[in-house]
Specification:
This protein is 74% helix and 0% strand. By secondary structure, it is mostly helical.
């Protein structure tokens, strides 16, 4: 087990509970916590030890939550009277879903399979990890990377 896997295993539940207290949504809390750990992993060299590691991780998680909340506000649904008529809106949603499926199909393995198992198969991270002979932490990280890549590609294609 690498050092970061130990940090992840030790602190994930505590950081998740902290994020959940901010957003009060289990799915969002899990996504924010995953993203915070990814940021921490990629910037571990910035941890100077002036505070406890848990506090540093929670600070990253809090900033990630605030960024997420601002982004959600910016992309909030239009008011009901501004929305497109039902049939046209339904067609646009189907077109977007089809475009996203095509982008997903172009992802490399294991990202494509992990994303599909999580989103469409509704499997837990521990189940996905078990299928691949890996840890649930590995499954979370691969899912996060797949989701990030899909988001990037969707933005490039203006979806």
């Amino acid at each position: 087990m690498t050092d970061f896997e130990a940090v992840y295993a030790e602190h994930f539940d505590s950081v998740y509970r902290y994020v959940y207290s901010l957003c009060r949504d289990a799915h969002t809390a899990e996504e924010i916590t995953q993203e915070a750990f990814y940021k921490a992993m990629t910037h571990m060299d910035r941890f100077d030890g002036k505070c406890r590691l848990y506090v540093w991780l929670c600070q990253i998680a809090k900033n990630t939550w605030f960024t997420y909340a601002r982004r959600q506000k910016r992309y909030a649904e239009p008011a009901e009277d501004e929305a497109q008529p039902g049939f046209e809106n339904e067609l646009l949603e189907k077109e977007t879903a089809w475009a996203l499926h095509k982008l997903l199909h172009r992802l490399d393995e294991p990202y494509k399979e992990v994303f599909s198992l999580r989103v469409f198969g509704e499997l837990s991270f521990s189940q996905i990890g078990e299928l691949f002979g890996k840890s649930d932490s590995w499954a979370r990280l691969v899912f996060y990377r797949a989701k990030t890549e899909l988001r990037r590609r969707a933005d490039e294609n203006q979806l």
